[in-house]
Amino acid sequence: MPTHSAASGKKKVRSKHHLIPSRWMPRLLAHQGKQWYLWAQKAPDIAGNSNIYLAGLENPWTIKGAPVMLSKPEYDWECRGFRVNEGPAVITHGDKLFISYSASATDENYCMGLLWIDMHADPQNPANWHKSPRPVFTTSNENRQYGPGHNSFTQTPEGDDVLVYHARNYTEIEGDPLYDPNRHTRLKLIRWDENGMPDFGIPPADTV
C-alpha cells in the first residue's frame, strides 16, 4: 500500500504483512479498551478450508502484533462436507465474552459452534479460550430448518438478546450447496441458563 511523504515528496510502501487480511467474514470487536479484528481464513499448513483468528488493531487498517488462531475444525460436526470454521460473531453476557461461529458444508450439515472466555482474561492467549465439543445450534428435521448458521446478534428494544441467522427449509440441492441462493434470514430469542451460558434451542418452524 503506497503512502506519500509531504516532506520528501517520495512514496513509501507500507508492508502488507501487517495490513488487515482481506479474508472471509471479518468482525470488529471493542474489548478491554482496545479494538480487535476477528476473521476466518485458510492456513496452508492446516488441513481444512478455514480457521478463526484474532488480532489487535494499531489503526483501522493495520494489525498490531501476530494473529492468534482461536479455533480450527477438529470435531466431526465441523468437518462434514468441508472442514470449516467461519462467520464469527460476538456477544457478551455477565462475566463472559462469547464467539459463535459456523461449521461444515453449507447444506443441512451447517451448524453453529461456540467459543468463550472470561471477560478479564487475555484474549490473545489461546489457553484462555474454551470451545464447546458439541454444536450449539443445528438442523431441525421436525421443523424443516436445515443448516442454520452464519449468525449475528442484536437486541430487542426491551434489551432481550436475539440470534440472527440464515437457514433453508429444504435439503434438495444440486451441486455445491454454497451456490444455492435460498438461505433466508431468521430471528430467534436467546435464553441464558443459570451458568450464564447461551441456550440457542432449536430453529423454529417457518410461520410465513
UniProtKB/TrEMBL annotation:
GO terms of biological process kind: carbohydrate metabolic process
EC numbers: 3.2.1.55
Keyword DNA damage (UniProt): no
Keyword Signal: yes
Gene Ontology MF: a single term: alpha-L-arabinofuranosidase activity
Pfam families noted in UniProt: Glyco_hydro_43
Keywords from the named record: Glycosidase, Hydrolase, Signal
Membrane-traversing stretches: none
Family assignment from sequence similarity: Belongs to the glycosyl hydrolase 43 family.
Protein name according to UniProt: Glycosyl hydrolase
Species assigned in the record: Citrobacter koseri
